[in-house]
Write a structure and sequence with these properties.
It is a single chain. By secondary structure, this protein is α+β, with helices and mostly antiparallel strands. The longest helix is centred in the N-terminal third of the chain and has 21 residues, at 167-187. The protein folds into three domains: 15-233 and 401-453, 2-Layer Sandwich (BirA Bifunctional Protein, domain 2), CATH 3.30.930; 253-381, YbaK/aminoacyl-tRNA synthetase-associated domain (YbaK protein, Alpha-Beta Complex), CATH 3.90.960.10; 470-567, 3-Layer(aba) Sandwich (Rossmann fold). α1 crosses α11 (444-454), α2 (44-63) runs antiparallel to α6 (167-187) and α2 crosses α11 (444-454). It starts with 20 loop residues before the first helix and ends in an 8-residue tail after the last helix.
Length: 575
């Protein structure tokens, strides 16, 4: 490709709307253009990278015994109503009507459509296992699209669905996909970590997210410094010390604590440590008023709490609602004396002794509170956030934290969809059985953006070699008529590289050398070959490695061999 013919309008200024590095660099390098909020055009350079990611995905999916198909974007409401997700999915589901007033939606995911298809076509155990995937546009009506390709309303995703005879078959499909995803993100040149995750709106029994480690990541990761334990902060657990407290229980007393509505105020006023306090938070779970009881130095994990309650919506209760149920102002709520209200107690709380908690009375708290003795515990669960520095639940080493970008997720769905949508088969004995399902997704655009978030410098993108839009740019320093030998040499190198199936760009634009160099770094070509009068006089050219900044001076007759050696790419690569 000649740069004079390339559609890559680069920008020198950072667009005002671009908040994170990948969004800024995709816009500045001429790879992305906004059409509407959360909706983008992939320009030619970006689309080359997207195709490379999709090729890697296809190769690994096919290797794992998956078959590609294409499902419709427009889904009839009846399928989503049959699965029970028409209302559950919420406002992100992009709903529309046809001319006859019938309800449809734009597919954010395809569990319903694929399960309906398989339920109609598969009848016998002999047809299983079945693993089907597609790479297709998805639609989610995000309330606040942001961060470019990280959170858009239209995006490209690979989704695969497995259908097995039993749980053992699902475990094998899940294992295959776990390995395939590991291969995909490794081949894309990403530093990533698989973590245990929450199933969210997809549902199911178990899930892993594949997180690209990056400071700009929206998601928190908790991982062990010693073993392989890793989980998203939404579901991470820590070691629970079950050692009984030897402290002698004191007499519970009510003490005046004026204007102590927070744990910080309370511990300062009573001179106690936060670990010796009990915090009670009030929530509205759909139409139910519930209490979450945790240690004072902990934070409620609302994802865990919501999953425990099985509610669709979870919000903090208003002061009016708290007053109605407990006759107490917020900030002084406690578990003692509470009756006929569902109370989820974090699993650490029963091990406290002589703790401090709210007295359900303004400006008062209780001291020497002992769980079980002073209030009954009917329901315990892990409902708190885990923080860095706590103890690993598997090996007792220290837990660390990081930020990550979710680029893929795999789910064990079990029979959630096959049961509601009638996906059954006849076993060897002619008995009807439910298919056991899994689903597996990769955000293609997010993978491209995550690669940039992990690989850039002040000058622009530093692409991992496997997904760079082009691998080499040849830059003649001058194209002036009195120095035709530079363009002639550059053109010959370009043509020789093309003949060797190397993905190369010749920057033949009538621009200053500085402009060409800046664009080369901004776009992120892994190798830049500079043809200048000084080196050319010595029969050499300059080859610069984008990732390391290393510069090599290579003889003209060796430059093609040198480039091929540095690229270390299969012969058949290239478009």
């Amino acid at each position: 490709m000649r740069a004079s013919q390339m559609f890559a309008p680069t920008l020198r200024e950072i667009p005002a709307e671009a908040e994170i590095v990948s969004h800024q660099l995709l816009m500045r390098s001429g790879m992305l253009r906004k059409v509407a909020s959360g909706v983008y055009t992939y320009m030619p350079l970006a689309w080359r990278t997207m195709k490379k990611i999709m090729d890697i995905i296809r190769e690994e999916m096919d290797k794992a015994g998956c078959q590609e198909l294409m499902l419709p974007v427009v889904h009839p409401a009846e399928l989503w109503q049959q699965s029970g997700r028409w209302q559950v999915y919420g406002d992100e589901l992009w709903r529309l009507h046809d001319r006859h007033g019938r309800d449809f939606c734009l597919g954010p995911t395809h569990e319903e459509v694929i399960t309906d298809l398989v339920a109609r076509e598969i009848k016998s155990y002999k047809q299983l296992p079945l693993r089907l995937y597609q790479i297709q546009n998805k639609y989610r009506d995000e309330r606040r699209p942001r961060f470019g390709l990280m959170r858009g309303r239209e995006f490209i995703m690979k989704d695969m669905y497995s259908f097995d005879r039993d749980q053992e078959g699902l475990e094998e499909s899940y294992r295959l996909m776990y390995q395939a995803y590991t291969n995909i993100f490794t081949r894309c040149g990403l530093d990533f970590r698989p973590v245990v995750a929450d199933n969210g709106a997809i549902g199911g029994d178990a899930s892993h997210e594949f997180m690209v480690l990056a400071e700009s990541g929206e998601a928190g990761i908790i991982y062990c410094s010693s073993c392989s334990y890793a989980a998203s902060s939404e579901v991470a657990e820590a070691y629970l010390d079950r050692t009984p407290c030897n402290e002698i229980p004191g007499e519970m007393k009510e003490v005046e604590t004026p204007h102590c509505k927070t744990i910080e105020d309370l511990t300062r006023f009573l001179n106690v440590s936060p670990e010796k306090t009990i915090k009670t938070l009030c929530y509205q779970a759909d139409d139910q008023f519930v209490l979450a009881v945790i240690r004072g130095d902990r934070t409620v994990n609302e994802i865990k709490l919501k999953n425990r309650l099985g509610c669709l919506e979870l919000t903090m209760a208003s002061d009016e609602v708290i007053k109605k149920y407990l006759d107490s102002p917020a900030g002084y709520v406690g578990p003692v004396g509470v009756k006929n209200i569902r109370m989820i107690v974090d699993r650490e709380v029963p091990f406290l002794a002589n703790a401090v908690c709210g007295a359900n009375k303004e400006h008062y708290h209780l001291i020497n509170v002992n769980p079980d003795r002073d209030f009954s515990i009917e329901e315990t669960a892990d409902i708190r956030l885990v923080e860095e520095g706590e103890i690993c639940p598997e090996c007792r080493a220290k837990l660390l934290s990081a930020r990550g970008i979710e680029v893929g997720q795999i789910f064990k769905l079990g029979t959630k969809y096959s049961e509601s949508m009638g996906a059954k088969y006849l076993d060897e004995n002619g008995k009807e059985q439910l298919m056991v399902m899994g689903c597996y997704g990769i955000g293609v655009g997010r993978t491209m953006a995550a690669a940039i978030e992990q690989n850039y410098d002040a000058d622009g993108i530093i692409w991992p070699m496997a997904i760079a839009p082009y691998h080499v740019v040849v830059v003649p320093v001058s194209d002036r008529d009195r120095e035709p030998e530079q363009m002639q040499a550059a053109t010959k190198i370009y043509q020789d590289l093309l003949a060797q199936k190397v993905e190369v760009v010749l920057d033949d634009r009538k621009e200053r050398p500085g402009v060409k160099f800046k664009d080369a770094d901004l776009i992120g070509y892994p190798l830049r070959i500079t043809v200048g009068s000084k080196t050319l006089a010595e029969g050499k050219v300059e080859v610069k490695m984008r990732a390391t900044g290393d510069v090599h001076y290579v003889e003209l007759d060796r430059v093609v061999a040198f480039v091929k050696e540095k690229l270390n790419l299969p012969e058949e690569r290239g478009f």
